[in-house]
């Protein structure tokens, strides 16, 4: 079956099996927003499956109705997902195998072998960062919006580097259960637990990082964020207690958004949500934002006049197996990930005047 052309496309029909993301017929050239998949999870230290996140989102996206209740017809701007890199997947497999051996407690590796294996994982991570940076540069040079679908949360560093070459300054709205500001984690420079620290170190154009949903941090991270003028952490326990004491969630979220500069990138680790939405994510933590709260947070960025330059969505982990073989619980990961990706894309387009907020 050949995908329908734009002239033939009917957004009310079921997506053809060979259609693009969200069942759309758009080509790369005809799309204003491009999803860059990064099937990478070498440094994950708890649960696995994040490298299957991009494909899980893609498959589930065909079940998403295109009429959005917040943004009118965002699909009309053109959405395209680039092919997954088999090279990055191979690097991820190699790195993950090395990390599993390094972290094993059976004493099978010598100190020299651990040092050599750790260096190789750091080398692979740097290769992924360069590849994502180059792909993002290509998308941006074509006048399109680049959005990363991870993989683990280490995935978007290259994209932020590329954006930093074009933007004098911008901020990051970081939604996550974790601070991700460790200097290194378990010896890995580009760990998923260090993404915000690495951005702070390597992308000086990022002037403010506003963190939301934090509820699992270490002493090093607390010390680092407290000592940095660039970070504004918001902890989930304080957010939830304020709600219990009668402050509306919208008021709290409005206050958070006001801390952001006018031009922002959104970095969304799906474990920032309550884990009932992402049961298989790599490092789930009780608590977190409700889906509606997350949507309101991003919407407020638009209504408060922020320009969303792009976003990354990471840690949508899925067990092994074909989509048809997954249990309803396992399939839920991709379902929620796809719907969140569509909302993020819709609000990003609206913030840039490429789609219109709905009055519904």
List the domain count as a whole number: 1
Helix content: 25-40%
Proportion in β-strands: 15-25%
Shape type: globular
CATH class: Alpha Beta
Give the second-level CATH assignment, the architecture. Answer: 3-Layer(aba) Sandwich
- CATH-derived topology: Arginase, Chain A
Cα radius of gyration in angstroms: 20 Å
Strand count, sense and closure of the main sheet?
8 strands, parallel
Can you count the helices? Answer: 10
Low-confidence stretches: 1-5
Structural class: alpha/beta
SSE string, helices as H and strands as E: EHEEHHEHEHEHEHHEHEHE
Could you write a compact summary of the structure shown?
The chain is of the alpha/beta class and 360 residues long.
Tell me what you see in this structure.
With 360 residues, the chain is an alpha/beta fold. It has a single domain, classed as Ureohydrolase domain (Arginase, Chain A, 3-Layer(aba) Sandwich), CATH 3.40.800. It is built from 10 helices and 10 strands. It is globular and about 60 Å long. Residues 1-5 have low confidence and may be disordered.
Could you list some keywords that capture this structure?
360 residues; alpha/beta; Arginase, Chain A; eight-stranded parallel sheet; two-stranded antiparallel ribbon; 10 helices; 39% helix; 15% strand; disordered N terminus
